[in-house]
Amino acid sequence: MPHRRRALILAALILVLNGCSGEPTPVPPSPGAGDTEAILPPGQSESPETPGPGLTAPGIRLTAVPRADGSFDMVEEVMLAAAVDVLQLQVPTSGEQLPGLMTKTAPRASDLQLLADDQLVPLDATTVETTRDLPLISAAKKLRLTYRLTGTTVRRTPQRPERAAAALRPLIAPAEATLPTTVSVSSGLLNAVCPLLPETRCVVGDPPALKIRPDIPVAQALVVIQLDLP
Known about the structure:
Number of helices: 1
Shape: globular
Radius of gyration: 29 Å
Strand order of the largest sheet: 4-3-5-2-1-8-12
Largest sheet: 7 strands, mixed
């Protein structure tokens, strides 16, 4: 009997030890507030009141977000020196005589939305393919345009389908020819040429943090960029 009792006690002890040494089932951590990063709309910085032309002073701030198909999502922030009741709109120049392109293109702005002094402006036509006038319901000096720009991109080689060139310029053509204009490309910028400036090379900085020279007079703010599409 003592021998049998010792065997039962030993078996029970082994079961207890096995239960204590088992690995607990992993539990995935709960997502915290910092796990999800807010994605801001194109052209909007963390501080919407960042000082500078186009936002807090007369000027234009144009942001181009390239897409894999060669189109761009465009955000154009404009502050004029004086209120106007008619806007002149224009797409970028066709590329057959532009350095870096030298190929005919057909730029087109579509899905246009316009805020004038923070009020949404109803539009009869949301596509721009040539120069045209857009009357406003009431005069305004602060404008925000968003649109999709297509037909301006030329892919360079079949071996590098993401390598491309494109012409960019503000959609609005204000009467103030010297209005300072800053054109930004959100990603992939490799080079920039401004054919209407005396010094045509207008890229600044060092790779990979290249930028287009800021504060170009709007009448000369036609930029031909080289980039890698996403």
